[in-house]
Automatic annotation (TrEMBL):
Recorded superkingdom: Bacteria
Similarity comment text for this entry: Belongs to the short-chain dehydrogenases/reductases (SDR) family.
Name recorded for this polypeptide: SDR family oxidoreductase
A Pfam cross-reference name: adh_short_C2
Lineage: Bacteria, Pseudomonadati, Pseudomonadota, Gammaproteobacteria, Thiotrichales
SUPFAM superfamilies: NAD(P)-binding Rossmann-fold domains (SSF51735)
Family annotation (InterPro entries): NAD(P)-bd_dom_sf, Sc_DH/Rdtase_CS, SDR_fam
Length: 257
């Protein structure tokens, strides 16, 4: 099957890097399945994709990818309708979803800890578990997970929960790549630096003072924040035939941090 005939599933497609990836990937695949919890943003994205006038089929599903039964149901519907799944991009995640994304350990509620692990790591597990059997059926697959440079535990403005969840994504990605490699499936992760999505702009960047912003920028060798499109470029590469011999890698897209 040619690359232009592939089916790609993108979680968190309505926002940020997921949305940029959908817009960029549209010209390379036959079918895009867009998953998100925000119906309005999914509809807006679907309209944008339709306006591109590519020969593209678009399916949208409202889905909370932290919910096991809901994930199984939606991926079952995808299997019944299309009988294949070639590309899975797990773009759901983030640290600003917690009420206090920079909370110290002693100030963190168990619900905050569990919420960030579910959002960033459990969602990745559930979607990969649902997708891999479909990929094995056709001896082909590209899985791209989302980690973060925070997984190293050296970022002061994020919580231990966020760092732990993204470190978990790193280990999960490397281990899964070994389990599925013989089936023609690659599994990699993109680890962004600070990326100016709408959510990060509102909840992280705009609340900083001019001095704090300057400190952040001085810590980045290229001297600026990333755009969602820059993260999407690397994501689309890892989902492509050009990356057929790349697997088990955590690719940092951080401006040199």
């Amino acid at each position: 099957m040619s690359e232009s005939q592939r089916l790609a599933v993108i979680t968190g497609a309505g926002n940020g890097i997921g949305r940029s990836t959908a817009l960029m990937l549209a010209k390379h695949v036959k079918t895009l399945v867009l998953l998100d919890t925000d119906a309005n943003k999914l509809a807006t994205l679907a309209n944008q994709l339709t306006a591109l006038e590519y020969p593209l089929q678009i399916d949208i599903y409202l889905l909370d990818v932290t919910q096991e039964m809901a994930v199984q149901t939606v991926f079952g519907e995808i299997a019944n309708k299309h009988s294949r799944l070639d590309i899975l991009i797990n773009a759901v995640g983030g640290g600003t979803a917690a009420g206090n994304p920079g909370a110290k350990l002693e100030d963190m509620e168990l619900s905050q800890w569990q919420g960030l692990l579910d959002l960033n790591l459990t969602s990745t597990f559930l979607c990969c578990r649902a997708a891999v059997p479909l990929m094995k059926r056709h001896q082909y697959g590209r899985i791209v997970n989302f980690s973060s440079i925070a997984s190293h535990g050296r970022r002061d403005k994020v919580s231990v929960a966020y760092a732990a969840s993204k470190a978990g994504v790193d280990g999960f990605t490397r281990k899964l790549s070994r389990e599925v490699g013989s089936y023609g499936i690659t599994c990699n992760a993109v680890a962004p630096g600070i990326t100016l999505t709408e959510r990060v702009d509102e909840k992280f960047w705009q609340v900083r003072s001019a001095a704090e912003k300057n400190d952040v920028l001085e810590s980045i060798p290229v001297g600026r924040l990333s755009t969602p499109e820059e993260q999407a470029e690397v994501t689309v590469f890892l989902a492509s035939e050009a990356a057929s011999y790349v697997t088990g890698q955590i690719v940092e897209v951080s401006g040199g941090i």
